[in-house]
Amino acid sequence: MDQAQAEGWSLTRTLERLLSIEVTATDTRRLSGRFRFANLPTGATLSSRCSTRFGGSEWPRASRVTFAVLSG
Fold this sequence. Notes:
Layout: H1 2-7, H2 11-38, H3 46-53, H4 58-71
């Protein structure tokens, strides 16, 4: 509200900004709830998974080969 006053925003612009903030917060809250409900494991990433599975050395080679094949 201070920014709106300082910059002389119209009532419509101010309400648009406030609604945008509220929608973003609602979406974030919903997504967070969905992740909690899904019980997905945390902390696992593709890079950590590949380094433990392939001993850390195969992943770079595998990605280069895949890229070369896909590039034609």
